[in-house]
Write a structure and sequence with these properties.
Layout lengths: L8 H22 L1 H8 L6 H4 L1 H24 L1 H12 L1 H8 L3 H30 L4 H30 L4 H19 L5 H9 L9 H11 L1 H22 L1 H6 L5 H29 L2 H20 L3 H29 L5 H30 L1 H22 L5 H13 L2
Length: 416
């Protein structure tokens, strides 16, 4: 047993493919569900429309936490397989849902699926990669997931335009669930032993209780807690994009196909960009990319709030994807840098609890502001919150990558 991406290339590549299927399960909703809410179920209030994002966010956030603790207790693979079993009924329920309440309930199941499967693939790749290439590992993992979100959003937009909002778009999700379950059950191997191998190489024994891990990751440890708040705000943005952007684009009379392109563009740039930003964080360090990425996202959101035609929205979506790509794998890599292997899976679970709690916060905040002051004001409010989050990282977080941190220390030591 050895650590490193190259030493574990077959399993690592398989887990990249599995996470692409996880992302595809989420992507089946990105274009179609907001339009289904408006055209099929005739929902008018934005707050009520976003109940499915709220249900998803709350459930996924809680499940992320348990995915980390269960991965330490029972192993990674059983948690991954359980997540795929829960995924199987999701597309079927979306096809057959007779009322909006069924859609909300289905997103509870989707939240459990995403929390168990995505969290576990993150933990397993951190296990395999070892300490030196975590940025690359997280870049590949998140790129696979969000490129699949984008491709599926685009594909479901095409299917919806050609065959209707149901059932064709969700048949794609059903195929993802079947393939993901088969690969996870019969081909994926357990990786907990790799974490134990890395822990054995640490001279200092570090064992924390669940309560201590939660406290350190949420509030007390500066880098971990800074990453947690930035992750929450990042997914607050994504909850806004998921639930309200298609409705905003539709207000100018854009076709379903063009809305599908815009819904796909942001996660496509986000996903592909992580192939660059993940490895870059291994060279340049984590803090600068996170701070700059949050500020770029804020700028992009302001542009979306101002724009009123396809070309401008497309440019802003690209910019939003770039900013998110700078942040997303880098935050996960920073958690892996700081957390000891003995409690790292639990720290990842706590971080992802706060990060995906952003879906719920975004659904409530954006829905209420949009209902009271309008869609564009909701986007502006989120833009300001995102900029403030970047400033918190700039002030409170320290550099977590070992090599970059040593370079910074030498610069300070050499300063007059």
């Amino acid at each position: 047993m050895r650590l490193g991406i190259r030493a574990n290339l077959a399993q690592f590549s398989l887990l990249v493919a599995v996470n692409a299927l996880v992302g595809g399960m989420l992507g089946q909703e990105r274009t179609v569900l907001p339009l289904l809410a408006e055209h099929t179920f005739h929902l008018t209030g934005y707050t009520f429309l976003l109940t499915y994002v709220l249900a998803f966010g709350l459930t996924k956030a809680a499940t992320n936490y348990f995915a980390g603790t269960w991965s330490d207790r029972f192993g990674r693979k059983p948690v991954l397989v359980a997540g795929w079993l829960i995924a199987v009924p999701v597309p079927l329920l979306l096809i057959w849902a007779p009322s909006w309440g069924w859609v909300v309930a289905t997103n509870v199941l989707l939240g459990v699926n995403q929390g168990l499967t995505w969290s576990t693939t993150v933990i397993m790749k951190i296990d395999l990669a070892g300490p030196h290439r975590r940025g690359l590992a997280m870049g590949l993992n998140e790129a696979a997931g969000y490129v699949a979100v984008a491709v599926t959003a685009l594909a479901t937009g095409y299917l919806a335009a050609r065959y209707g909002l149901r059932p064709a778009p969700f048949l794609l999700g059903l195929s993802y669930a079947a393939l993901g379950l088969g690969l996870s059950a019969f081909v994926v191997r357990e990786t907990r032993g790799h974490a134990q191998l890395e822990a054995a190489g640490h001279h200092v024994r570090s064992e924390l209780t669940n309560r201590q891990v939660f406290s350190q990751t949420s509030l007390r440890e500066p880098a971990l807690s800074s990453a947690s708040q930035a992750g929450m705000v990042n997914n607050l943005n994504d909850g806004l994009a998921w639930g309200l952007f298609p409705i905003l684009f539709a207000t100018t009379g854009l076709s379903v196909a063009r809305i599908g392109i815009l819904a796909a563009l942001y996660p496509a740039v986000w996903g592909l960009g992580q192939l660059v930003t993940g490895p870059l964080s291994d060279r340049w360090g984590r803090k600068g990319l996170i701070t700059a990425g949050m500020l770029v996202q804020a700028l992009a959101l302001g542009a979306i709030a101002t724009a009123d035609r396809f070309s401008l929205w497309a440019a802003a979506a690209v910019l939003l994807g770039v900013g998110t790509a700078m942040v997303y794998p880098t935050l996960l890599a920073s958690i892996g840098d700081v957390a000891h292997p003995a409690w790292r899976a639990r720290a990842v679970g706590v971080y992802r609890l706060w990060r995906d709690g952003g879906f719920a916060v975004g659904a409530i905040l954006a829905g209420l502001v949009a209902d009271i002051w309008g869609l564009r004001t909701a986007v502006w409010v989120v833009a300001v919150i995102t900029a403030l989050s970047g400033l918190v990282v700039a002030v409170r977080m320290y550099e977590t990558h070992p090599a970059a941190s040593r370079r910074t220390s030498k610069l300070h030591e050499g300063a007059p």
